[in-house]
Amino acid sequence: MNYSYPINEAWTTKEIIDVVNYYAMIEKTYEKGVLKQDLIVAYNRYKEIVPSKSEEKQLDKQFEKQTGYVPYHVIKKAKDLDLKNLIKM
């Protein structure tokens, strides 16, 4: 499906691409599954762009409203699994 991902107009083109990649991985986790290592790399880059916990929550809430997918649950599950596991929600 095509969703409108939340972005900040102050981000650079590279940052927008990285944030969209992160949200696409969250979406893929629900639909097909992703490797934990790939998800964590995308999440760490996302946190470099969005270091504020409150901004992260706000963006994730917008994403959840658009897609029905909850990034928090995906990341929490990823942190609880071994490194080579496939994560699927």
UniProtKB/TrEMBL annotation:
- SUPFAM superfamilies of this UniProt entry? BH2638-like
Q: Please give the name of this protein.
A: Uncharacterized protein
Q: Which domain of life is it from?
A: Bacteria
Q: Which organism is it from?
A: Gracilibacillus boraciitolerans JCM 21714
